[in-house]
Amino acid sequence: MRPAWKARAPRREFKGLPEDPRDVLAREGGWKKPRRGPRPAEAGSSAALPDWAARKAGIKRGKPGVHGSKRPRPAKPATVGETAAPEGAEAVPSGEAGLETAEGTTTTVEVTGTPVVKAPRPPTIRLQKYLADAGVASRRGSEDYIRAGRVTINGEVVTELGVRMDPAADEVQVDGQTVTPLKKLYVALNKPVGYTCTKDDPNAAQKVGELLPAEWTSLYSVGRLDRESEGLLFLTNDGDFCLHLTHPRYGVRKVYRAMVAGMVTHEILARFRAGVESDGETLRIVDGRVLTATRGESVVELELAEGRNREIRRLFASESMEVLQLMRTQIGSIKLGELKPGRWRTLTPEELKTLLTPS
């Protein structure tokens, strides 16, 4: 018998408050505090153990995607005459397709026709670019031919600009003559003094095209050297190559060697680097150095990133100095080397890759 002081005090009941559900369960059928652990169905499996217990028991578990773990098999690709089936289902012929219902069964429905596989679109180019690459005319001249209705594609006259064509499948004619694409040519020439780069200059006594084989009439110069200048000049029939070497955004640099009347100082070259205003344009050099300098004449080497008209001569004219001789010795990484005046050579694939690779 418990002492009176150890007698359990009766549970107080507060009227108006709901009874605790746990007290009801304990009174009717007994209530036990739920304990943490695996579900009874998984109690005997190693997967039910936490990671720390599995490591302590020496059980190794595979990682997702490695040996020892369940990896879903990829769906079998559909072949000709079959339709692609979802993962876990088999492919069926093209005349019927599997359809899973809400009850989990699979029914078959008729599918008309065979699956259509979209072929990749052939590469197309603008018509005026194709004409220019074929040597018919420049892009501007090719646009004039198109507007005049002189160009046909597969027998149909084209008069609108921007029409695209497939060089491998379409037949293009100009004035009834079939146009065939030309092989891309890349030529390095040592231009002599007295020759003009422009092909259509009626006042030119000598043109650089006269130094090349007669069948290379489609070549044009990449940039220009004025008639009094000499040195390295590229010629090509590839418009993209020409754009890459001449547009300022690509930053292909050219190196020139100039003989100037008078003494060229470092202060003059510093002003050239900062920029000189001439006829509304800012002329500047990237770098420059004096090779020899006397009171009578100086030899300097200049590096330019843009090829403006007579840029070096205009720079020295701003200092009241005259350029006596001007030679371009390098374009990008290609140097003039031992190429004699009036002689030419084709560029190698390695040289082309070097010129077109961003520096």
In short:
With 359 residues, this protein is an alpha+beta fold. The chain has helices spanning 21-28, 51-56, 127-133, 139-147, 239-246, 266-274, 311-317, 349-356; strands at residues 82-83, 92-93, 96-100, 106-110, 125-126, 151-153, 156-158, 164-165, 172-174, 177-178, 186-191, 220-222, 230-236, 254-261, 276-278, 281-283, 287-293, 297-304, 323-331, 334-335, 344-346. It starts with 20 loop residues before the first helix and ends with a helix.
Overview of this structure, please?
The chain is an alpha+beta fold. Among the domains are: 125-178, RNA-binding S4 domain (Structural Genomics Hypothetical 15.5 Kd Protein In mrcA-pckA Intergenic Region, Chain A), CATH 3.10.290; 186-248 and 338-356, Pseudouridine synthase I, catalytic domain, N-terminal subdomain (Alpha-Beta Plaits), CATH 3.30.70.580; 253-331, Pseudouridine synthase (2-Layer Sandwich). The chain has eight helices and 21 strands. It has helices spanning 21-28, 51-56, 127-133, 139-147, 239-246, 266-274, 311-317, 349-356; strands spanning 82-83, 92-93, 96-100, 106-110, 125-126, 151-153, 156-158, 164-165, 172-174, 177-178, 186-191, 220-222, 230-236, 254-261, 276-278, 281-283, 287-293, 297-304, 323-331, 334-335, 344-346. A hairpin with a 2-residue loop joins strand 9 and strand 10. The longest helix has 9 residues, at 139-147. The radius of gyration is 42 Å and the shape is extended.
